[in-house]
Design goal:
Elements: E1 5-13, E2 18-24, E3 47-53, E4 56-65, H1 66-71, H2 74-97, H3 102-105, E5 110-111, H4 119-131, E6 138-142, H5 144-151, H6 154-157, H7 166-169, E7 178-182, E8 193-198, E9 203-210, E10 220-225, E11 231-239, E12 244-257, E13 263-267
Parallel strand pairs: 1-9, 5-13, 6-7
Antiparallel strand pairs: 2-3, 4-12, 6-8, 8-13, 9-12, 10-11, 11-12
């Protein structure tokens, strides 16, 4: 998610609120001639803001009665909570990635099976980005099979001469100007999507913390900010009626398509 144009914040908001996400337009005003003694014509910076409606609200929940809590360590319960949080984050990310379609971003920059994918194809994708003047701060997000194809490339395996050992780390180093990210949650979107290249401008998204109403009796009601920056909310309380500890992890967010040239799709077929 950090590869996209996102605004993460632990500020409280309500579902339906709007958040402005800055966006640099792809079209720029032409360069002008300066005449002797003439004044400068100051051009606009060619930016606007995408109004994101926080119209998405997803959550996961969990409960444990007194017996389950007594039979489990705090570490076990914490790990279960982490898994639940990861499940929510995955669901939200895939929802945002659902915008990456042919209708929104045009023909794929690469089409082919993972077995045919190598560093030369990455160079071709970079050229496609260059042709559309995509800024140099670029990310290449790929499904595991395509990462594996790069790992098996002789040129990438033999990176020790550059001070990097891809075989030992299992990571693909920066390649043709891209920061390479492995992701096993790229949705196919009905179009065989397996990855994408972006500078972040293709999708604008905003996340906020949904605070409970005043006068609540939650034991905990607070925002959670994950390692990638995504904002989640936690509600935790004890139900005396049935002796059950209950927790809800939730996310309020919204997204919109940004600049068409800001995403290059990668598909398997």
């Amino acid at each position: 998610m950090a590869a996209l144009n996102t605004i993460f914040s632990d500020d409280a908001a309500r579902k339906g609120d709007r958040v402005s996400v800055p966006r640099l337009n792809s079209a720029l005003d032409a360069a002008l001639d300066k005449s002797v003694g003439g004044s400068y014509t100051v051009q606009d910076i060619d930016s606007d803001a995408v109004e994101i409606v926080l119209n998405k609200h997803k959550y996961v929940s969990m409960g444990a009665d007194d017996i389950e809590v007594a039979d489990s360590s705090a570490l076990v319960l914490e790990r279960y909570g982490v898994r639940k949080g990861n499940q929510l984050a995955k669901t939200v990310a895939q929802d945002v990635f659902s915008e990456i379609t042919n209708a929104n971003f045009g023909a794929a920059a690469f089409t082919g099976a993972a077995s045919t994918f190598d560093e030369d194809d990455v160079a071709d994708i970079a050229e496609s980005c260059d042709d559309d003047d995509m800024p140099e701060d670029r990310y290449l997000v790929l499904s595991p099979a395509y990462i594996t194809a790069l790992r098996q490339s002789g040129a990438i395996k033999d990176t020790s001469g550059y001070g990097y050992n891809a075989i030992m780390t299992g990571e693909v180093p920066m390649l043709h100007g891209f920061k390479v990210i492995k992701s096993n949650i790229v949705p196919a979107n009905g179009e065989n999507l397996v990855g994408f290249a972006t500078d972040g401008s293709g999708i604008a998204a905003a996340f906020r913390y949904l605070a409970p109403q005043d006068g609540h009796k939650y034991d905990r009601a607070e925002s959670l900010v994950g390692e990638g920056g995504i904002t989640l909310g936690l509600r935790d309380w004890y139900s005396e009626d049935n002796g059950n500890r209950r927790s809800v992890i939730e996310c309020v967010y919204g997204y919109e398509t940004g600049i068409t040239e800001g995403v290059k799709r990668i598909v398997s077929a």
